[in-house]
Amino acid sequence: MLVGNAGALLRTRHGRTLEREIAADLNAVAAGSRHEAQHALDAVLRAEGAARINRELLARDPRLRTLLGALADNFIVLASLDGRSRRVVKFAYDEPLGQSSQQFHKRLAEGLGWRTTEIVWHTPSVGYSASYHIEVEAPRDLEIVSAALVVADGRGRDTYIPAGFSGRRSHLYSEGMAQDAIGTTSVRLRPRRAGLIRAAALLGLLTAAILTAGSSQIGSVNKDAAASITLLVVVPALLAAYLPRPGEHELADVPREVVDG
User: Which of 102, 105, 82, 16 is nearest to 55 (CA)?
Assistant: First the structure.
């Protein structure tokens, strides 16, 4: 598909023929690993070598650049449809999270649940279907405060699409976008107040009550300090055992995104 699009672009618009070395790079973009695809993509768009003129012409076309970027980061899924009636095709995938670039005090506030955590990822191929629907599901014990989809096309037009609902799931919907449109999804998350934050506050109050009761019996504590200190440490630890759940928390995983095309 990439070779056909690039060859047709050069032939119809510039009267030129696609070189074999460019075709090899285009094949590597679609069939290679993520590292190989990115390297091949850079080679296609870099105006160097014997085919530098055609590479420069291909790099100028916004639709081809969008297609190249989409296939370098993604793969093609084929589904058999009968074509006799409308079909909604859904697929789900996990979006890996990058390292946070926030300052330390902001990361600390996010970790304690005092500040929302923003997750941003690219949403390619927004314009390759008549409509595009994203359903973002928050991990367990988290809630979505806000979500938005920003779509930009090759003519410099930006479209801001806010989510229609916030909670455990948010839906983002776009339609009629240009074929060279590229989207960026932004989601803000925070711990659910009915979950981790409320349980942590209750644990803190119980621990404070135990320590206060222990301080009122300071005379007895002095007689057997080792046993008393052990008791004051073990009881809050036992209470804290009711906060975590079996297995790894979903926050250590990645948010799930479901896309309809």
Answer: 16
pLDDT digits (tens, 9 = 90+) for 170-187: 888 888 888 778 888 888
Q: Residue 247: which region, alpha, beta or left (left: phi > 0; alpha: psi -120 to 50)?
A: left
pLDDT tens digits, one per residue of 21-61: 888 888 888 887 778 888 888 888 887 777 888 888 888 88
Q: Which residues pair with 169 in a beta bridge?
A: 137
Compute the radius of gyration of the chain from its Cα atoms: 27
Per-residue CA distances from 215 to 179, 211, 221 (Å): 70, 6, 8
Q: DSSP letter at 195?
A: I
Q: Contact at 8 Å (CB) between 126 and 179?
A: no
CATH fold for the domain made of 90-193+251-260: Immunoglobulin-like (2.60.40)
Interatomic CA distance for residues 146 and 148, integer angstroms: 7
Segments making up each domain of the chain, as ranges: 2-73, 90-193+251-260, 196-250
Q: Which two tokens stand for residue 192?
A: 């659910």
